[in-house]
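Late entry, evening session. Most of the bench is empty. Finally got around to the prediction I had been postponing all week. Sequence below, unchanged from the version circulated by S.P.
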Amino acid sequence: MKKSDDRSAPSRRQMLSRAAAVGGAATIALSTGAAYAPGASAATGADTVEVPGISAAYILPSGEHGFVREEEAHHSDRAAGTTRTLAVRFPTLPKNFARGVDAAYVLPNGVHGFVKDGEVHHTDWTAGTTRRLSAQFPGLPKGFARGVDTAYVLPNGVHGFIKDGEVHHTDWTAGTSKKLADRFPTLPSHFAAGVSAVFIRPDWVYVFIRGNEVHRTDLGKKAIRKLADEFPELPEAWTAVAPGH
């Protein structure tokens, strides 16, 4: 389950007002210790429409980005704001996966993997088939094998899984996990408690999504950008979620 943001709307607005009064700083420090990177606008929470957020994100070998929200997918090589249903975009998906997934990743050979609860489906498998996470990834910690919040594949083919504030990589000792805050020290504190989606660029930059906020490991410690600024091609409704949703 994704964690909710504990930041108060008044303090966010106060910080934005102070930044606006001085003409806008390079970064806007928030009460959580997070900082907004240039060009980002901080939502107040009270003014945002709370809708389901992005549940999965991935990067394809061609460099395009893919995002999943409920039963729809958007790829960055398509017209801005356009979506296709998961069932149409990925016809091999089991029916329950086509209604929404918890995580998605793309292997170096272009095969898509989708995770829902404790099961996984790969698009090069027989249509509709799944395997248990524990069978496909026997090194997963027990709690992870029952379901994860997000998953990703590194450029070297290693899989990463995140559940709440813990992460496991498949090249680590079986059953082990690390705190997100320890593995990724640049993460804002509320991201370290859990994220919605992650993907890894070919240059090994990690891109974390939580609600309508994005942190990239090349932005600097605790820096945040708004989802709409980082990925302007996304449908508008997809970027209007309350922080931490």
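Two things to note before I forget:
Residues 164 and 194 are 4 Å apart (CA to CA).
Helices lie at 9-21, 86-89, 95-98, 133-136, 142-145, 180-183, 227-230.
Will write this up properly tomorrow.
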